[in-house]
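Curious: can you check?
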Amino acid sequence: MTTPPLVEAIDLEKEFPLTRTAGDVLAGRPRRAIRAVDGVSLSILPGETVGLIGESGSGKTTLGWLIARLHDATGGALRFDGADLLALQGPALRRWRRNVQVVFQDPVGSLDPRLRVWQIVGEPIRAQGEHSRRVVRARVRELLPTVGLSPDCVDQYPHEFSGGGRQRLSLARALSVDPRLIVLDEPTSSLDVAVQAQILNRLVELQRERPVAYLLITHNVAAVRFAADRVAVMYLGRLVEVGAVRAVLETPLHPYTKALLAAVPVADARRRRTRFRIGGDVPSLIDPPPGCRFAPRCPFVIDQCRTVYPMLREIPGAPGQLVACHRAEEVRNVRPAELLSTGEAPSATPPAGV
C-alpha cells in the first residue's frame, strides 16, 4: 500500500512582479516579473527527508517558503494531507501553521536580540493561543535539552550563544508546536564543520524520536547524502532531477546534476579529469530561455533542447529516478568527476567519445 504524501506541490508557480518605470509606462511595455518557481511538482512523505539542492538563485528558498505558506503561490496547487492548502485563510491558516515550521538560514537575523530564550522559543506556542507565561516557560525548559541546550538558559539572550547555539534555538522554536514538517533553509551554512555535524546528527536523531518530515534546502551535498532520503535538483525555477539520494548522487542523469557534483572538492587529484566543460552565465529569471533552461550552458545541447522543454520522466534502468533531459540516456554514461565547471562557453555539440 502506497503511503499518501504529507505535502504535494503540483505545478507550483511564484512570480515577483518588477516595478514599472515611467519609461516603461510611456513606451507601453508590459509589466515584467521574476519567475522564481515555475511549474514545480514535488511531494514529501510523512517522516521523510527531501534534500533540495541547486545554485544560489535557483528558487530553492522560494519553494520552501511557498510550502510553508510564507509566500502565496501565483499558480498551481499545494496540498497538505490531501487538503487544499492554498485555500486556507485567516484563523484556519493560523491554526494550520503549527504543522509546518521553518529554520531560517541566518541564525542571527532570525532571532530577536531583545527577547530572552523562553520568549523566542515559545513564540509559536503563544501564536497558537497559549498565553500563560508559566506554561510557555515550562514547555521551553522541556524542549531545550532535545536540541542539546541546558534548560537553565531560558533567561539568556541570543548574543550569549555561539552560531551553533543560536541555530539550536531556531530548531527548538520550530519543534515547540510539534510540527509535521520542518523546512530547513541552509541550516548549517554559517557554521564550522564540527558544528555542522552536530546539527545534522541531532536532526537525524530527532526524526527517529518523533514523526517529523524535513525539507532540507542546502548547497551542501555531503549534508544531503548523510541526512536525506530523496533529493531534488533545482535549476532556474524548475526541477531537473528527483530521486533517491544514492541513485542521484552516484548515477546522476542530468548534466546540471553532474556539474554540481563535479564542483564538490575531492581529495584524489586523479578524479579531477575532465572530458568536457560546462560554462556560460546563468540566464535571467526575468527572461528565461525557451526550451530547456540549461541549454545555453549544456555540452549535450541539440536543437530540440532549445525549443522544447523536457518534462520529468523515468528512463530505462533507473526506476523511480526522474530527469528533465532529452538526452538523459546518453548523459547517464558520463561520470560526475569527469565534468569541471569553468567560465568557458559550452560546446554546441556533444564531445567526442560521449
User: Anything to note?
Assistant: The first strand starts at residue 7 and ends at 17.
